[in-house]
Amino acid sequence: MKRSKRNTRLAAMRKLGSAAIAGMEAARETAAVRVEEARANAVETVSQLERAFESRVTRAMSRLGVPTTREVRALAREVASLKASVQRLSRSRARA
């Protein structure tokens, strides 16, 4: 009878241990999901802050008369085009 009680207790302890492990695994999975959600929210928030900051800086620079990247690139293309035209004119006058 003592062995029977001991076996019953061992079986109950094993079940309890298995239940505890299953509970811990479920809690770990839940925590992992929450951490991923928090990370995604943090990334989105930082992205929104960056966009707001960039927008404000762009407006401030515009008010100060600083050209945008697009404007500088357009001017660089114009300068390259004018330079090529001057070189063609120089070559044609040198030949004449």
Structure description:
The chain has 96 residues and is mainly alpha-helical. The chain has two domains: 65 residues; 30 residues. Helix content is 94%, strand content 0%. The radius of gyration is 36 Å and the shape is rod-shaped.
H/E element sequence = HH
Radius of gyration: 36 Å
Strand content bin:
under 5%
Overall structural domain count = 2
Q: Shape from CA axes?
A: rod-shaped
Mean pLDDT: 91
What helical percentage do the residues reach? over 70%
Can you summarize this structure?
The protein has 96 residues and is mostly helical. 94% of the residues lie in helices and 0% in strands.
Give the helix/strand layout.
Layout: H1 2-64, H2 69-95
Overview features:
mainly alpha; 0% strand; 2 domains; 96 residues
